[in-house]
Amino acid sequence: xxxxxxxxxxxxxxxxxxxxxxxxxxxxxxxxxxxxxxxxxxxxxxxxxxxxxxxxxxxxxxxxxxxxxxxxxxxxxxxxxxxxxxxxxxxxxxxxxxxxxxxxxxxxxxxxxxxxxxxxxxxxxxxxxxxxxxxxxxxxxxxxxxxxxxxxxxxxxxxxxxxxxxxxxxxxxxxxxxxxxxxxxxxxxxxxxxxxxxxxxxxxxxxxxxxxxxxxxxxxxxxxxxxxxxxxxxxxxxxxxxxxxxxxxxxxxxxxxxxxxxxxxxxxxxxxxxxxxxxxxxxxxxxxxxxxxxx
Length: 295
Description:
Elements: E1 7-11, H1 16-27, E2 31-36, H2 39-48, E3 56-60, H3 66-80, E4 85-88, H4 104-132, E5 136-141, H5 155-174, E6 179-185, E7 189-190, H6 214-220, E8 223-224, H7 225-238, E9 242-244, H8 249-267, H9 279-289
Parallel strand pairs: 1-2, 1-4, 2-3, 4-5, 5-6, 6-9, 7-8
Helix pairs in contact: 1-7, 3-4, 4-5
């Protein structure tokens, strides 16, 4: 996808990977709507982009509210005339805790932002992309956790990123050819994700002061967000579905595959005729018989 001259909306654009993506896109002469739940953070990013020659706006948006995302889209289209790129990047993480000690507000918050926020973006933007008939792309920021990294102490975050990868994998099969999907799966990044609770909405328990604990230390040791953004930009340009950033994560992915391979070999080895239970041909047959319901 040729990025120059296109327009993008980036959620979570006020800091971290989102901010780095806004900068990288602006450098590619992409117009950018910087969206963030914190208006001042969005504006600060927008101010940094002023010298790149692209149109830039800052928008306060809560991705957990579909009406807020709809207003974000409307403003972007009014400003730019068209939008071809949606970056569902807004994400949160609660303080580390064993799963048995997690709270319902934390669960609801993490999934509302990390999964529901992306889904709201898809619901609002995908129909516009489909109708436009123009080459478009949706980038969803997942994590290396989605590839099999078992983040002890952050099970809710890990589960949400697995869900986002699954959502993205289905989405790319449902959209027409001119709308592509990329899923970004970075490892640890130098960002302020560890401070996400300071921006938690009242609906999910309200803000709490983040402690500079292990999360702060580890994220400060992470890959520069600018490096991750460059990989994401290149992945979109080349049309990749997966964008990975941290080479060591392949070991985790291989471990998961090895366990699965062994499980199938021992418990469900291939046998003649076993494809009768394969969901894909079953779905194809269903769609062929009920095509009117899906058109």
